[in-house]
Write a structure and sequence with these properties.
The chain is an alpha+beta fold. It has 2 domains: 3-26 and 107-184, Ribosome-recycling factor (Topoisomerase I, Chain A, domain 4, Orthogonal Bundle); 35-102, Gyrase A, domain 2 (2-Layer Sandwich). Helix content is 57%, strand content 15%. The chain contains 4 helices and 6 strands; from the N terminus they run αββββαββαα. The strands form 2 sheets. Strands 3-4-6-5 form a 4-stranded antiparallel β-sheet, with helices on one face. Strands 1-2 form a two-stranded antiparallel sheet. A hairpin with a 2-residue loop joins strand 3 (56-62) and strand 4.
Length: 186
């Protein structure tokens, strides 16, 4: 393995960590309707656990209302039950063909809980980034110890790795800042 391969792998894994943090942020509820909140909801559909995205379309006609339009109207009750049981604080109402989920206003305490959750998620992302950095640094050190690369090349790559890590940590921090701002919006 070469230093270029190590760097490419590290960059790819760091990108995946940042994407995971962003996806996790999308599932943290705000006072605003967001279809991504339902990404983790799984519906028992004809005895098979199925992601809700495969069973319905979503729309947001108003800032605090999410409309779920099932492809198969027979699955309406199953989808409604899955959303209710997903512990999202949503209580879907049905008109026989679609579900409406009204997002209640968040209390100040609930907002603080969600901010705490977002900060915890961001820290998990930072830890994942540092773990990728450590494994890449160890692989580079092994290359130097085996005599496959020189000390100068190793140090130059280590500096690039630090810059790469700082860039990805910055992306996580900016995503956290945006999520906190969104949660504090009334």
């Amino acid at each position: 393995m070469s230093i270029d391969a190590i760097m490419t792998d590290a960059e790819h894994r760091m990108g995946q960590a940042v994407t995971k943090v962003s996806e996790d942020f999308a599932t943290i509820r705000t006072g605003r309707a967001n279809p991504q909140l339902l990404n983790r909801v799984v519906v028992e559909y004809y005895g098979t656990p199925t992601p809700i995205q495969q069973l319905a379309n979503f729309s947001v006609p108003e800032p605090r209302i999410l409309v779920v339009n099932p492809f198969d109207k027979a699955a309406l009750d199953d989808i409604s039950r899955a959303i209710s049981e997903a512990d999202l604080g949503l209580n879907p109402s049905s008109d026989g063909s679609i579900l409406r989920c009204v997002f209640p206003e968040l209390s100040e305490d609930r907002r603080k809980d969600y901010i705490r959750l977002a900060r915890s998620t961001a820290e998990e992302g930072r830890v994942a980034l540092r773990n990728v950095r450590r494994s890449a640094r160890d692989a580079m050190q092994k290359l130097e110890d085996d005599g496959e690369v020189g000390k100068d090349e190793h140090e130059r790559a280590a500096k690039q790795l630090e810059d790469l890590t700082a860039n990805h940590v910055g992306q996580v921090d900016r995503a956290l800042e945006a999520k906190e701002k969104e949660l504090l919006e009334v």
